[in-house]
Fold this sequence. Notes:
Layout: E1 5-10, H1 14-25, E2 30-33, H2 60-73, E3 77-79, E4 83-89, E5 92-97, E6 101-110, E7 114-116, H3 124-129, E8 133-134, E9 148-152, H4 156-167, E10 171-176, H5 185-192, E11 197-200, E12 203-210, E13 213-220, E14 223-229, E15 231-234, E16 238-240, H6 243-249, E17 264-266, H7 278-297
Parallel strand pairs: 1-2, 1-6, 2-3, 6-17, 8-15, 9-10, 9-15, 10-11
Antiparallel strand pairs: 4-5, 5-6, 7-16, 12-13, 13-14
Helix pairs in contact: 1-7, 4-5
Amino acid sequence: MKAARDLVIVGAGPAGCEAALCASRRGLDVLLIGNEPPGGLAAAARRIENLAGSLRPLSGRDYQRMLQMRVERARIRRLENTVLDCRRDGGRFLVTAAGAGALDCRALLLACGTEPAAVAIPGLDEAGESGLIHRDIRTLPGDLESRRVLVVGGGEAAVDSALSILERGGEPVLCVRGDRLAARRGLMDDLKNAAIAVRFGLEPAAVNASGDGMIVEARGPDGRLRLKSDFLLLCVGRRPRLALYRRLAGSGAPRDVITGVPGLFLAGDILRDRNRYIPPAMADGIRAAVEAGRSLAGDPKEIRA
Length: 305
C-alpha cells in the first residue's frame, strides 16, 4: 500500500501558501490544493499596504505572482483542482479532488477562505447565467472601456473595486445601502480624488437582464428608480467556507487552528467572520503547519496565540 502523504492543505490563499512553505521547511511531505492560482482573493485587491518588510504597496496581482514564485521555488507540489469531499478513514484523511481522485494524507489543513454571502434579488440568477453578475472584481473583463459597472456595497471591497474599475477604463457607480462608507483613510482619499458617482440610500430590488446589459431597479429615499448598467458587481459580504470542515467536525463554527478532530487544522479566513487581513492569515498558516508537524511527530505540545 502506498504511504500516505504527511499533509494536504486545501486552499492556496495567503494562509494555505504560508502553511505549505512552513511545513516544507520542516521536512513534511506537503501537497497544496487550490482551485485558483496562489493568492486567492488577495488578487482582487487594487493595493496591499499591510505587508511587513514590503518597501512599497503591492497590487493584488503582484502579490499573487510573488506568492506563486515562493511556492514554486520551494518545489511544493500543487494541484489546481476543486476539492469535492474529505473524510476520515481510520487515522487518516481521504481528500477527493476533481480530476485527481482520492488523496491519502496523515494530516489535513483547511485554509478554504470565504465564499460570497447569499443575496436574494429577483432576476439575479437569470442575469448571472449571462455573465453580467460578479461577486469580486477578478471575474470582470480586464478592459472595461466605456462600460458602466454598478458596484453594490459600502465597505472596503466595494470602494477598492470601484477604483479598480475606473483604472480599467470603466464607469463605476457606487451604490450604498446606508448613508456612509466604511473604508480606511487611504481608500477614501483615493475615492475623493476620483470621478466616481456615489449614490447613498439605494438598495437593489430587482435585476432585468437583456442582450446589451441590464436594468437594476433600486429602492431609494425618493422611491424606486431604474439604473442601466453593463455589469453588476455585488460586494455585499462574504462568509467562511465551512462545508468541508463540517463534514469532518459537524456543525458549529471553528475558533482556533487546532480543532477537536485529531490531525485536522485550520488557517486563515475560514476562522473569521470579519477583520480579514493577509498578515493574520499568514500567521495562522505558520502556526497550523507547526502544530501539524508536532501532531505527526507525536508531540502533544501546542502553540497558543
